[in-house]
């Protein structure tokens, strides 16, 4: 196992940690409706790229000032963090929401703590308890139920777009462990800025290969959608990630990713407000996921 640079040990969550958890839930729970509104004017890959670019530009001054302060041997982990914690999931979530309601996507995001635990067990020598295993089984049972709910609300036909969320939450889980094991010595804001610095140019290059400028000039609602994406990138990505990374450093990877307890509530509220209709199978699957995540985290 690689030598860890971790200097802080996990501590019991304080009141400020719980309040921060709620704040992040409100911010990230609103992300899915912003993605949904952005997809009205832009393709899923443009939405993913623009989300990264806006966060990159917002944090660029911090990144430039931090370039000489990167500890030796950490750039590889920082770039991996940028790819796994932001770049790849930004595209995957946007792709999934072309066929999955934003409210359901928000609930599926609750898989993150489960994959954080699995990644810790497989790659970072984290132990697992029997009750955690039970939580994993219940959570994935909920996933199976949701994956069998089609885009039209019918049950029994596999919705393959569900797999994009699975991949995204796997990325989040691995990323949380990378931060906890290898990057706790770098201040959270600096770490986030450097991670975005590593992936921002890739997103810009990709966006320029699409018809983004044409859509911006000719598609009705394109500027409004760009505003939604700016909010998503600046608040929901840049600022929220800095807060999230700090939480991982000062609490634990599993506690920090349990932000997904409240995200589904916010996401469902936005979805219902926007007219989304959820079927019985949606609720059964979502409840199973939340119960599974709760059991897994309580058994930490």
Q: In DSSP terms, counting alpha (H) and pi (I) runs of 4 or more, how many helices? A: 14
Helix-strand sequence? HHHHHHHHHHHHHH
Q: What's the count of strands? A: 0
The share of residues in helices is over 70%
Q: Radius of gyration, Cα only, in angstroms?
A: 19 Å
> Structural class, please?
mainly alpha
Q: What layout of secondary structure does this protein have?
A:
Elements: H1 15-29, H2 31-38, H3 44-66, H4 75-96, H5 102-108, H6 112-123, H7 130-147, H8 162-182, H9 188-208, H10 212-218, H11 222-250, H12 253-257, H13 263-273, H14 280-298
Helix pairs in contact: 1-11, 1-13, 2-5, 2-11, 3-4, 3-9, 3-11, 4-8, 4-9, 5-13, 6-8, 7-14, 9-11
What would your notes on this structure say?
This protein has 300 residues and is mainly α. It is 73% helix and 0% strand. It has 14 helices and no strands. It has helices spanning 15-29, 31-38, 44-66, 75-96, 102-108, 112-123, 130-147, 162-182, 188-208, 212-218, 222-250, 253-257, 263-273, 280-298. Helix 1 (15-29) runs antiparallel to helix 11 (222-250), helix 2 (31-38) crosses helix 5 (102-108) and helix 6 (112-123) crosses helix 8 (162-182). The model is unreliable at 1-9 (pLDDT under 50).
